[in-house]
Amino acid sequence: MKRTIVALIALAASYSATPFAQQPVPEIPFDANINFLKLPPDMNFGEASGVAVNSKGDIAVYTRSNSAGGPAYAATASQILLFDKTGKFVREIGKGLYAWSYAHAIRYDKDDNLWAIDKGSDMIVRFNPEGHVTMVFGRKKEASDEAEPWKRVRPPLPPIPGQFRQPTDVAWDTDGNIYISDGYINSRVAKFTKDGDWVASLGEPGGGALGSLNTPHTISYDAKGNIYVGDRGNRRIQVIDGKTNQFVREIKIDVPAPADAMPWMGAKPNVAQLLAADAPPGAGTMAPGAPWALCVTPPNAQGQQFLYSSDAYPGRVYKLSLDGKVLGWIGKSGHQAKQFGWIHEIACPSENEIYVAELLNWRVQKITLKPTARMSTAGQ
Fold this sequence. Notes:
Layout: H1 2-16, E1 30-33, E2 47-53, E3 59-64, E4 79-83, E5 89-93, E6 103-108, E7 114-118, E8 123-127, E9 133-137, E10 167-172, E11 178-182, E12 188-192, E13 198-202, E14 204-205, E15 212-213, E16 216-221, E17 226-231, E18 236-241, E19 246-251, H2 271-274, E20 293-296, E21 306-310, E22 317-321, E23 326-330, E24 343-350, E25 353-358, E26 363-369, H3 373-376
Parallel strand pairs: 14-15
Antiparallel strand pairs: 1-26, 2-3, 3-4, 4-5, 6-7, 7-8, 8-9, 10-11, 11-12, 12-13, 16-17, 17-18, 18-19, 20-21, 21-22, 22-23, 24-25, 25-26
């Protein structure tokens, strides 16, 4: 009997020590349409930094394109183009807006207001469904002063309440509170009430511990009021409890890159070096699994929601359950259809239909996933 017990304990220990005991993450079959959005003959996308879909199926694209003007460096590059659910071009929103400088991300809220986050002007602007500005956060540097880009110093300067330094994205909890990821310089999340009043600064620059952030680049939310922060430089997703304002857990996407994976341009990165203990802060940005873009699907008929995340290398989109299990992946870096060049934002109006905005390929692809029945009904 004693020998049997010892053998069982040893067997259990051997399984618990196995680093990759779970099944390999499957590739999900999918279709892609790179021509779904129909631009007028005299118009082109530039870098597609943002995409959002409202309750009617209308699609807004935030692009660094035709509005670009000024010198070769620091040119203005922000423009919102609206398409209907069939992909037909409808109109431009916010043409010539004072906030336009350098487009980063856009989101529709539950009331179909469209929020634009401009990294260059440090401003967040809310448009109503008619296309008029109804709320503004942040303020860009005055033209009468000596305006220059923010300097990135190490260690970062502490954030200033009410001031943004290269913000990146916006999300909301179930009470309508507003969360703005801020961003490249401040590395924190700024929280406001639904009326725009200041609540708190969440997180601080750093790595390792929960609440330590390195370029919170993207942010989303679920139906329970949890906020998902794409901590890109630290190669993880951190989750904030909207009720307590606490960072409660992290999600890491550890799906090995294929041996033949290549970046969109240039030499293959040294992943081991990027993830080494002595790597400089933010080195994880170009490593597999680093969250460049996040979105959470609306609840399906069973009340389930899913999290989508994308990386720059090997250029994949990952489908996850909200508890962080990777259910599958699609795509790779490249210039062709069904390949991606730095996905900068994802819109996911349903579990298996998503839109991806690509910086490097200057386009938006409509993606239709075709998972197996078992995968599509995986746990929440």
